[in-house]
Amino acid sequence: MNRLSENRVPDLLATESYDYRLPPELIATEPANPKESARLLVVERKKGTITHTTFRNLLSFIPKGCSVVYNDTKVIKARLFGKKQSGGKVELLINKQLDAQRYSVLIRGKVRPGSVLLFGESLQAEVLELCADGSRVVRFMDGNGEILTFEALLHRLDRFGHVPLPPYIQREEREEDTLHYQPVFARQEGAVAAPTASLHFTEELFNKMRKSFDIYPITLHVGAGTFKPVETERITDHPMHSEYYEIPEKTRALIDSGRELLAIGTTVARTIEYYVRTKKSFGECDLFLHPGNPPRRVDHLLTNFHLPKSTLIMLVASFLGLEKTMEVYRCAIQNRYRFYSYGDAMLIL
Prior knowledge:
The chain has 349 residues and is an alpha/beta fold. It has 7 helices and 17 strands. The protein folds into 2 domains: 233 residues, QueA-like (3-Layer(aba) Sandwich), CATH 3.40.1780.10; 82 residues, Thrombin, subunit H (Beta Barrel). Helix 6 crosses helix 7. The longest helix has 13 residues. The two termini are 24 Å apart. The N terminus is likely disordered.
């Protein structure tokens, strides 16, 4: 539950204002089966109402004439388990590609620049740099020390890598996670975390939406920074992570048109809003949406329920306001909704 007193006016820019207590059993460790049976909480801002339904009824709530934007990024097998040349065990999680040869990664285990990590007979990583934020910069090579292209790396990740399940899913990876932790409309490889609002769609529901609404793709490769909590006292002091994005020409024309928009997920909302502010069709998106920096273009948002004191719950509050957001989260907890990546969904209208 929200730790703030109900009678106290909350501070919109205080990180503590976005805290809540979640019973551990409400953290979803498995997706709903079938997917469309996931619950859906619908918040209608103008009416001030909350409706409880299921995801299979999503299309009946989307306003007629609304255009839908989705993220076609594809999750790669970004987690690697290997060893140092000295024999010590290491775990590596790819964060994002920096350029043609270098990658930002997180490594569990002590390593120094110049260290070479072994993940299989044809995959190794050389540590190039230790960064102040705890991340490392590496380049990947084959067994002969030849630097790998991104395409060659993906081939090896499919063989040696593991699905990068979020840290709050406290269980071993399973074969079915390869399918479950991937949107059905994923096309562009590069994400190391799933755009979770997309995980509820089946091919059938996505095709129904395509027939009923105009839909448009964007690509934002979700990085590991999406799980980084806000640790500063003031949310505006938080160093926002950046993620690579691209917006196709037809989607840019839609955004520029002023037509009513539904964003499938926080990644889409951030990408659209970054484009509106910069007019850049590709690059690194580091936009932080919160009640002090609300959306200018996105009308409606489909999302999941997010971690306390995270940039994602603050993004939700940029649409709903802080007090309404915490009210909705209390309601979801009281009604035993399932939270986080494999959890239930919320539609903000």
